[in-house]
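Write out the 3D structure for:
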Amino acid sequence: MPANKYALLRYRIIDKVISNKYKKYPSLEDLRLSCEEELFNSNHENVSASTIEKDMRAMRKEAGLGYYAPIAYSKEFKGYYYTEEGYSIDSMPLNDEDIEAIKFAATTLSQFQNIDLFKQFGSAIDKIIGRVSISDNLEDKEIENYVQFEDAPSAKGSEFLSHLLKAIKEREEITLNYKSFADESQKNRTVQPYLLKEYRQRWYVIGLDAQDQKIKTFGLDRIVTIEYTDKLFRINSEFDPDTYFKYSIGITNDNSKPQIIQLRFNLQQSNYIKSQPLHKSQTLKEIKNGIEAKLKLIVSPELIMQIQSFGPSVEVISPIELRKKIKENLKNTLSNY
């Protein structure tokens, strides 16, 4: 890959770090480390401080880029910032080199689609490759006349992902200013973060709440601010990221025992269940006029919601408590009409 394409990727990273309103005035070393951590460099070369300095000079002055980024250095805070509030190169139109860099990245991603590590991102990679393949002009508005892409809402709180990941990797305790879902009140929570998890386009952090020493799940969309405490921690020996959600759908783990869930689907839904398993524990048996699915799961609100989303196409066979709960919910729903 030509050096200018690596530079274009570094410019995006530098812009993101300088624009971060939750960690203002990043130092030269902060920018260098961010580029080094985020770039996939097949030659495993380090990114030097002088390279970052050259990048920022290009972002400020190079006419071919057209950024004219208002980057300045604060002697008071010993870091970089934009003199123009709200500035970002993301608001600039793509030039030919930007488009070539995107195409290169899409081609590179396509080579890793079938590797286990990346299989969970397969649909996202397909979308990127599909968009690049449809037209050489990535800003062609006419494409919307004959191709409709899914308009997925952006996950609120995703701006905290890099900070939480840093705290998880470095085993650093953090303080969350966390907003209650019930009454919108805010409270500081000291948390030892263990794991980030995405579910239905929302992000969650799982960690130990220092107040009651219990492992809890916190939605990133409820986080107002994050502060590092500079206090290190040891991960709870009872927590295993590979098994914590083994028997869960969604983000619920209340330490209850998993149960065998039996669901009966009609013929209309059978092919869907075959092609899109509800959970990796799923086993299927053909029956008259449909299919029967067995799963080993914790009974959770997310599981109940997913079952109810199939409407009359599904019947809960067991456990009996779950069958009764679904029946009760259906009665309550009917009473609204």
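The two ends are 61 Å apart (CA to CA).
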